[in-house]
Design brief:
The complex is a heterodimer of chains A (about 110) and B (about 120). Chain A is built from no helices and ten strands. By secondary structure, chain A is mostly beta strands. Chain B is mostly beta strands. Chain B contains no helices and eleven strands. Classes of the chains: A mainly beta (about 110), B mainly beta (about 120). The interface between A and B is medium-sized, with 19 and 23 residues.
Chain lengths: ~110, ~120
């Protein structure tokens, strides 16, 4: 199974950037790194994914280490609506996504 | 992105009964995935459902307890059988979203099950 390690929680002030780290040392060379977030009482929501290069979309940026054993999700300006649990994951054999503990992000006004 | 309709959104069930959860996708997908999320915990994969074949279960999950149907490429059901309070969880279905080319996964909104 895919193994990822993330801090349990992080706090940020509103309008400030949030950097969420993830270790995925067992990832293979062809596995994409995925990030999802889960707002309270909702199913997980896709945030971003990438392979080697850094990636940007309207929600966030993904910085991937050169050795691909770690990555960082960057929320450029946190809002109260970004308070959620953020999961870093990648596909295991059989196209399965398996989830670690995730990071609970608290955004303070 | 793919749109998933999951029903029911919540239910309270008696011990020893069974509940069937439905997952409808607005596009054809090869694989559908069923997850369980126990209170305050992360998601745990129960099984992968392919159309036309038996579901593949993860370690710790068995077909007798969680039978799955996959009659076509847009629909699947998960049944939680002979329920006990330990089955109280959120159950979610998911598909790999290939329509947009981004290959992310889309999740249903979940079924919150309480067993009393």
């Amino acid at each position: 199974d895919a193994k990822t390690t993330q801090p349990n929680s992080m706090e940020s002030n509103e309008e400030e950037p949030v950097h969420l780290p993830c270790n995925h040392s067992t990832i293979s060379g062809t596995d994409y790194i995925h990030w999802y977030r889960q707002l309270p009482s909702q199913g997980p929501e896709y945030v971003i994914h990438g392979l080697t290069s850094n990636v940007n979309n309207r929600m966030a940026s993904l910085a991937i280490a050169e050795d691909r054993k770690s990555s960082t999700l960057i929320l450029h300006r946190a809002t109260l609506r970004d308070a959620a649990v953020y999961y870093c994951t990648y596909k295991a054999a059989g196209n399965k996504l398996t989830f670690g503990g995730g990071t609970r992000v608290l955004v303070k006004p | 992105s793919a749109v998933i309709s999951q029903k029911p959104s919540r239910d309270i069930c008696q011990r020893g009964t069974s509940l069937t959860i439905q997952c409808q996708v607005d596009s054809q997908v090869t694989m559908m995935f069923w997850y369980r999320q126990q209170p305050g915990q992360s998601l745990t994969l129960i099984a992968t459902a392919n159309q036309g074949s038996e579901a593949t279960y993860e370690s710790g999950f068995v077909i007798d307890k969680f039978p799955i149907s996959r009659p076509n490429l847009t629909f699947s059901t998960l049944t939680v059988s002979n329920m006990s309070p330990e089955d109280s969880s959120i159950y979610l279905c998911s598909v790999e979203d290939r329509r947009t080319g981004r290959y992310g996964y889309t999740f249903g909104s979940g079924t919150r099950l309480t067993v009393v």
